[in-house]
Amino acid sequence: MLNAQDKVTVIGAGTMGMGIAHVAAIAGHEVYLYDRDPKAIQKALEKIQYFLNRSVEKGRMDDAQAKAIFGKLYAIENLESVSDSRLIVEAIVENLEIKQDLFQKLEGIVADDCILASNTSSLSISAIAGGLKNPSRFIGLHFFNPAPLMKLVEVIPAVQTDEAIKSSSFQLMENWGKLPVYAKDTPGFIVNRVARPFYSEALRILEEGLANELTIDTAMKEIGGFKMGPFQLMDFIGHDVNFKVTETVWKSFYHEPRYKPSFTQKNLVAAGYLGKKSGKGFYDYTSDTPPDQQMKIERAILQPLFDRIIALLINEACDAAFWGVGSEEAIDTAMQYGVNYPKGLLAWGKEIGWDKIKNTLNELHTIYREERYRPSPYLIKV
Ligand SMILES: NC(=O)c1ccc[n+]([C@@H]2O[C@H](COP(=O)([O-])OP(=O)(O)OC[C@H]3O[C@@H](n4cnc5c(N)ncnc54)[C@H](O)[C@@H]3O)[C@@H](O)[C@H]2O)c1
């Protein structure tokens, strides 16, 4: 089991690597930060410094504590320097061959008891581990953005992972103040799989012309209590990123119709309308007045939109439970702490009533005759 005296290495100093390094330093470890681009490391350190300064300003820590945390971060220029690490967390580009190549190099550098972990969102943990001489020390540690704020970490054992590595990684994440959950090594793990209908069903409703984006967003916020509606959230995540995740999950599930990507979103990506970061997505962000996301719309219009999207989300959570992607508790925790859902979806299903969820799905199935609306076996049995 690792303790705070053990050195941790984070490889990839982009959005996620920066956050993970920050978390590990707060937990008391000395942290080596490596990136193939030295400028990325400098930028990451500047940003961590900025966040620490803000924590001091807000009274969350004193100056000495912030300095001590920052003093634990070391920019590393070559991989050989990480030889005394007990844990390596990789957060580089999402590419199987490049990740395998990196871990093969690392195997020749670190000691036999160093845990090797990937923060991949969509690649198979077992496939990355498959390139190693000793895959039993390999595990997925999937943090959420921004890593210092989001409590969830999906802990994903590969089929090759040793039991002791599994439990000590889980324990370590708890020691880091995180909320870890075990997830099966299947496409999208828990969160990126169960969240798909939030986007895809909203897109379908829009494509059918049943409601516009503002009405659907309002339904999910006002009736469901979601912090952002689906279109607002897709604009925020970026359509390039969100479309890619949907497409990867769909392809990885051998074109399962529930995950089918949307042409509307594909066209936004092709047009360069990537959302907030490009100034335009479903909404326009170029004017001084932000898009009005709070409209007064009659509940009678909003309710069926919410009922449809939540039924598909709950069905997806039920299916993840049915296939053992996570325990029921893990699935509910994951959606609350990985993507800030107001309630766990299985608890929500129970509250709404399983029969109501089944009826909504059956009605949709009767109209569309599409497999995407088939109730999960979990719902049939419950
Ligand atoms: N961004 C998210 O919301 C998010 C959330 C969870 C997981 N992830 C996963 O985390 C990983 C990193 O994502 P990100 O958003 O931080 O990407 P990013 O593009 O912000 O950062 C990636 C960094 O890795 C560096 N890099 C690329 N190849 C490298 C190599 N071979 N060796 C060393 N450094 C290399 C790049 O220079 C870059 O600084 C990906 O696997 C992604 O799927 C991302």
Characterise this structure.
With 382 residues, this protein is of the alpha/beta class. The protein has two domains: 7-182, NAD(P)-binding Rossmann-like Domain (Rossmann fold); 192-381, Orthogonal Bundle (N-(1-d-carboxylethyl)-l-norvaline Dehydrogenase, domain 2). It contains 17 helices and eight strands. It has an eight-stranded mixed β-sheet. A hairpin with an 8-residue loop joins strand 6 and strand 7. The longest helix has 24 residues, at 299-322. It is globular, with a radius of gyration of 22 Å. The protein starts with 6 loop residues before the first strand and ends with a helix. Bound molecules: nicotinamide-adenine-dinucleotide. The site of nicotinamide-adenine-dinucleotide has 23 residues, from helix 1 and helix 4.
Count of distinct strands: 8
Instruction: Give the ligands present.
Output: nicotinamide-adenine-dinucleotide
Question: Ranges with pLDDT <50 over ≥5 residues?
Answer: none
Mean pLDDT: 96
Summing up helix and strand content along with how strands pair, one would put the structural category as alpha/beta
Within the largest sheet, what's the order of strands? 3-2-1-4-5-6-7-8
In angstroms, what is the radius of gyration? 22 Å
CATH architecture of the largest domain: Orthogonal Bundle
